[in-house]
Structures are given as C-alpha cells and as structure tokens.
Specification:
Elements lengths: L4 E4 L3 H8 L5 H4 L3 E5 H8 L5 H11 L5 E4 L2 H12 L7 H11 L4 H5 L5 E5 L13 E5 H10 L6 H9 L22 E2 L12
Parallel strand pairs: 1-2, 1-4, 2-3, 4-5
Antiparallel strand pairs: 5-6
Helix pairs in contact: 1-9, 3-5, 3-6, 5-6, 8-9
Length: 199
C-alpha cells in the first residue's frame, strides 16, 4: 500500500498534541506531513514560548517527513513581518484556503490518485468536491484510530491531558476545547483507505 500524505489543515492538531506532550505521534504515522507556510509561521513565531520552540524543533528537525509548503498568503505575510507591518489575524486560514484551491496545492497531491488525508481541528474546515482518494479526520478521530491499531494505549488519556493540562510549561489557558467529542470525525476516502503501523 502507498503511504499517505497528511495535510495539516490548521494549527489545532499541533497545539493539542503539544498540550498533551504527544507531538511525536505525528512521526509515528510514518507519513509525509504537509504544513502550509503561514500555519508554520503561526505555530513557531514566538521563540519565548515553549510551545513554539517545541513545535519548531519537531518540524525543522524532521524534514522529511515534514514539508512546509509555500503559499501566496504566507509569502505576503513574511514580507510584512520583515517590514514590521501589521499581520493578518487569519493568515493561516487564508493560506490553507490558498493551498486547498490552487493548482500547485492540494489538487497537485490528489491528482495522482495516491492516498491523501487532511487532519484538522478547526470546525470551519470543509472540503468542496472532495476527491475520492481524500480521507478527512480530526485530532480526536486520529487518536481513536491510533488506539484501535495499538499505537497508543488510550485515546481518552491523551484527550484528558489536552483538555486538562498537567505537564510542565502548560497553563490552564492552554486547555483545548473540542466540538467533536467523544469519537471525533473520521471520514474515509470513497475509494477506501486503511492504515496500520509499518504498512
């Protein structure tokens, strides 16, 4: 079976996995992981913040499987940052829309027919004209899937840590709020998709 490409549709999964101290689960998937540039910048722009440093370290230290994809929005925001101009509040979301719709973005990954998955947390993420080789799932859905195949012992323990953080460097304000509990979202590709460790 061909390995799937994982598209990170927003910063949420990184933030939630960081709160739980489980960023390494993105590496356990053994997939190419695509992060658009503006989402990467949003996640890693403040070196004084432990989360930004740790997310930056995992992405920068693991290329591949992580790939930071350029977008027009990301390029414009980086130019503004260099000039000291005010940045857009929703640059990550705009860059993701750019990536999802431009010919050299998501369509370039799905056009060849290889399996592609979108991991998201933002309830606003929608895929219009979903290609038959595209699998869509949420962080909670991913954790339940990883439990089913034995990569993690308990999805609920990780969700509990995300919603009630206890690890050093996490604050009560880092607690994640999910709208897809208890099972999460897991919409398989129309052509069928499956994953087991090392397959």
């Amino acid at each position: 079976m061909k390995r799937c490409t994982l598209i990170m549709a927003d910063a949420g999964p990184f933030n939630s996995l960081w709160v739980a101290g489980r960023l390494e689960l993105l590496l356990a998937l053994d997939m190419r992981v695509v992060v658009v540039d503006a989402v990467y910048d949003e996640l890693t722009s403040d070196p004084a913040y432990l989360k930004d440093r740790e997310v930056k370290a995992i992405i920068d230290g693991n290329q591949p499987p992580f790939i930071v994809e350029p977008t027009d929005i990301g390029r414009m925001e980086r130019e503004k940052r260099a000039r000291g101009a005010k940045l857009k509040r929703n640059a990550g979301e705009l860059a993701m829309v750019d990536f999802m719709t431009s010919d050299d973005g998501l369509p370039s990954y799905t056009a060849v027919g290889d399996p592609v998955a979108i991991l998201f947390e933002d309830a606003g993420v929608r895929v219009i004209n979903k290609p038959p080789n595209l699998h869509v799932f949420s962080t909670i859905g991913m954790l339940h899937g990883l439990e089913r195949v034995g990569v993690i012992e308990s999805a609920e323990e990780i969700v509990r840590e995300m919603t009630h953080p206890t690890l050093p460097g996490r604050k009560p304000s880092d607690a994640r709020k999910f709208t897809d509990l208890p099972d999460g979202i897991d919409e398989p590709a129309a052509l069928g998709s499956s994953w087991v460790p090392g397959s």
